[in-house]
Amino acid sequence: MKILLVGNPNSGKTTLFNLLTGESAKVGNWHGVTVTPREGNIRKTPHTLVDLPGLYSIFSPRREEKAAAKAVLCNCDVIVNVIEARCLLRSLSLTRELIKLNKKIVLAITFKGELERSGGAINPVNLTKSTGIPCFIVDNELNVNVFLSVIESNFPSVKTIPDPPRSAYAPPENGGLSLVDKLLLSPISALPLFIIFMAAAFYITFGKYGAGAFLGAAFYSGIQKFTLFAEKSLTAAGVGNFFVRLVTEGIFYGLSGVASFVPQICVLYLCIIAMEESGFLSRAAFSLDGLFKKAGLSGKSVFPLLVGFGCTASAILASRSAESKTLQKRVILALHFVSCSARMPAFLLITSTFFKGNEFIAVSLVYAAGIVLALTASAFAARQSRHREEPFAMEIPPLRFPKVTVVFKQLKNFLKTFIIKTVTVLLAVSVAVWALRSFSPRFEFLSVSRMSESLLAKIGGALSFLFSPMGIRGWQIPAAALCGLVAKEGVVSALLLAYPLGISGKLSSSSALAFLVFTAYYTPCVVALSASAEETNRRLSAFYGVFSFLAALLLGYITYFAAAACSRFGAQNVIFTLFVVIAVVSGVKRITKRRKLKGDGHGPREEDCGKNWWEACEDCVGCRHSLFRGQKTPSQKGYKGERQASKL
Is 324 in contact with 296 (CB distance < 8 Å)? Predict the structure, then answer.
């Protein structure tokens, strides 16, 4: 039997799916968590359960709802219409569409406790009688047998659904917006509060007295002791030098650089999960929609961008919630400049070595600059497109205190994925880097002192010209950057294997800062590029990868020269000079633009103007649209068609 879970966004479909199948699919208190249909077998049964993306109407033109609508129209045995108790009256509009399909339908009511706390009430028995459709309450005590008994019950033929009487459903009392909601949704306080919450999350993760720094130091000390113990044990057991070096250097030493930063990665991800589950991110998306619109995005883009802090590939898949394909492409381009958790070990290695005591400031600035670059890249792409976007609409869920069990379950799933990736992909990268570092082009096994003759040195030396403008000499840094294309964790492994005694003293502060900037924004890993190609196409994915690589190189060069100038002439003098130059260039550009528009009274061509031919302009000088400035549009004045109006 094939059973579909259908309902409005954020109604609890995935929670019910996990409850019945025993799986650990991602849930969240925000719109667009599920972007593709997900299948699983109900526990100890052959029945298939399908979790569909959120759906308001079968006939909705919205891109994110088409996959769910298509699945509903295909063959299935039962449709379970998941309805949030607080929004039952509104959700019944979808139920009325579903009954016209002449399929078996069951109502699953979620969040009953929240309805009762807000002054409402629901009686499933009376609701079944009034609607004629079997219904049940979803809670933690729901088991498979109860669910199947409802599914397998007799289904009466229902033609229409009246609004349920008071004895079946009492809607929640309308108490208006709470003070917290007013603050989070206000255009004045929303952005500052979002910045404060994100800054607090980063301080807890990277701050000197934060939990992330304390746990990271303890974890790193334990790994170092374990690696030393393993080396001594293997040597005492009489294992050959080749295998001792393979295990200690190629495996333990290569993995330890990434594993030592796992606590900080977990703390940051824990903070993001808490913000998701509380409903804060949905309010941030609603409040930031105006700002994101200027960058060619929408408020929904907040979700994939924040998911990008964890994994770029997952964020690219989450971009399917975008209102259109064009908007999704801009989100994917922006995600190339959002630093994922796999880059964090490289950030922490560089900042803890060259900027000790200022790790929180350095890493926070890198992440903040990444968001600015992401919005800038999207705005640049939006200027090249004239696609009209759909109006922004999304579900604002109620504020909820994050459930500890849900938060830690999601954290466990993230850790599981991260560890599997570390043990598989990163292990392969570490062993490959060690092998390339330990063998010459003639396959001669080299000692650590002869690394400059290795295959890795030859490959890195061929790419060294790209990093010379950053003041970086040698083959080690280019080789590490190349390994990062396979997996960003490979940057740290390659650096530790290429610099056995540490990177301290190998780079100047200016070069280290430039390499930090490059590492933060250059091309994502091959998995993310593959996901990008799947969502767009191979040519566009390759273009995004090359563009982000060249942009990161350019930013690295600028950072190096700016840092070198600050150290030589003083930061205040350099900043003042840049401010004067920007002001002069901006003034000259503004004057030139005004003179060009004045011209002969005709100004730019009509197709160069952002408005349509019938719209009135108030601030445009000399354009043909000035014919209609402050007047009625041609259609209001009685012109017959576009051709007659264009003759003016």
Answer: no
